[in-house]
Amino acid sequence: MGTAAGNAETGAGAALGRSLDKLAQTAIVFAVGGLLFGYRPNGSVPAIAIVVVVFTAMLVCFGVMLVALCRTMDQANTIGMLGGMVMAGLGGALAALAILSRTELLLVLIGGLFLVVTGSVILQRTWFKITKWRYGQGRRIFLMSPLHHHFELKGWAEITVVVRFWLISALFVAVGVGFFYLEWINQ
To answer: Is the CB of residue 152 less than 8 Å from the CB of residue 89?
Structure first.
């Protein structure tokens, strides 16, 4: 493996991996919920969820192979941008699954880490504009936004940030599955 592949893992490749990981977790929740718990508001929803899981797994394998074959960082960044465009479509499929299965709030809970990271950007920009208007110079809440860059600038290694965000993401998924299960039991 060359340096481009190593660098891609800390840049575009890592971002693609985190996004695909979250998408896979959420799609698995829908598939398992549909198959194990018999939650079938529409019989095709679990089948669509399984297709999304398989497609995500294939995309991860294909993306890892492509990044490993990259000779330059530009090639790795191009693959990362391509993955971002594919993720937009998969995100739409995931939103459609949530709407079809009437679990929109569950999707918001499972994607809680995305809300926290997006909220950090909104807070940072809003606070900066308010303080710039009020004091003439903008102030920041975080060293840098989104939130994971704040922790990197605090001195955390990138792998530490990624693993901790995975754990927090898994916690959101576990809470979401717990709520889903409680609702299923009470029906």
So the answer is: no
How far, in Å, CA of 66 to CA of 4, rounded? 11
pTM of the model: 0.62
Q: How many CB atoms lie within 10 A of CB 88?
A: 10
pLDDT at 80 > cutoff 80: no
Main-chain dihedrals φ then ψ at residue 185, nearest 5 degrees: -65, -40
CB crowding 53-72: b at 16 or more within 10 Å, else e: bebbeebbeebbebbbebee
| Ordered alpha helix ranges (H), 1-72 | 3-10, 12-36, 45-69
State pLDDT tens for residues 17-64: 555 566 666 666 666 555 555 555 556 777 777 777 777 777 777 777
Q: What Cα–Cα distance (Å) separates residue 150 from each residue in 116, 128, 146, 171?
A: 13, 15, 7, 21
Tokens 């809680």 sit at which residue? 112
pLDDT at 112 over 70: yes
